Alpha-1,6-mannanase
Amino acid sequence: MQSLHFILIVLFFISCISNALTIQKDSLGLKRTSLSSTFDPHDAFETAVNSTWSTFWNNINQGFSQSDPSCLESQTFQYSVVWDVAVAGLAIVESRDISKTNDVATSLYKYQNSHGWFAATPGNTHSYVDDNCQVLWVFLQAYELTHNEKYLTTANKLMELIQGQWSNEVGGVRWKVDGDYIASISTLEAALSAVKLYEQNKDNSLLSFAKKCLLWLDDNLLDKSDGFYYDGLNVNNKNKIDKGKLTYTVGVAISTYSYLYKYTNDEQYVLIATAKANGTLTSKTFLNHNGYWNNGLRYVHLLFDGFSDLITICDKRGFIDSVWKQGQYIYENDQLPGGNNVGNYLDLSKPIESHLTSSFHKKENHDSKDEVKINHKQSSGSTHHNYYCNNHSKQFKRSLMDDGSAAQIFYAISKFSK
């Protein structure tokens, strides 16, 4: 009896200590979630990818709709911009549905111009390197799924075009094809494209190109105070740097360093990737007051990808709990309410923070394709989320980009949750 009494006392003190630690964690503002909750990334991915397809894929036009077809003002079909198609399309490929994968690939070819670039919209004269990098990822993964050599050929030729956008004047990879702006995101996505493609053709020059991109970024656009990247610079004024920051640059960097470790076994790449990953979980740059990432789904899904690569390639499983909670927060707070909206997502929980400078505005214009109006000098400020259709019914206006991004987030988590 005395022994049992002693055990109960010990268990009581353990419980007290555990509660104290939990209270301390909650005091940091991070909502507590559990790996045993109802959030299942596999189910969340399947639901999100199915909703993305059923909501936005138009069988008659064989393409994704730019707008929510259920909104009255969206009755006329309009092809989505290629960035959105690449994000949603990759999620479709990740679902391993070969028929839908081939549909996505066929639709993407409608965007390709005579030079081989994929334009903003079919027939558009403007092409962006970062968009084309994400298109390359779609074709590369589509090849891995279907073994259709045409898809691999497309990825290889696109990589050659992307490498050709390296600036001989100042270095780095141009954001708009043949444009004057050198962006961190285009340079990083070019590097990630190279290391992804290396897995297929084992061309060592691709690894060299990726390393060159990363070294240039460290020398020109790295904020050494937090390890994150500034948005970019103009070839005509290298010293005038746009200091906006977004999570997708960090995520792509983490992925690239993880792949470099995979192919070289050089531990320095793991150290760099780990430091950047830790930074996103501690720095106020990317955290809201409640401890969750503040960037919208269209930017943060690549950060989830980065963590997924770091965990699965470099075996950094210590990040699993933190990344899971970030994903669960999106599942619980950004999924649209109502039975007709299951699997549809909007940035309901992510007000735009004041530190997001011209990077955000620039990509918003990029998304709407008002290319001629893009101004790299736009001032900082918040943006208004247009959540509803224009019929004043408070009907949510669903987003192809947000749905595709959410699906990619849950897929990234599912890769280390098997």
Summary: The mean pLDDT is 86. The domain at 36-414 is CATH 1.50.10.20 (Glycosyltransferase). The radius of gyration is 22 Å.
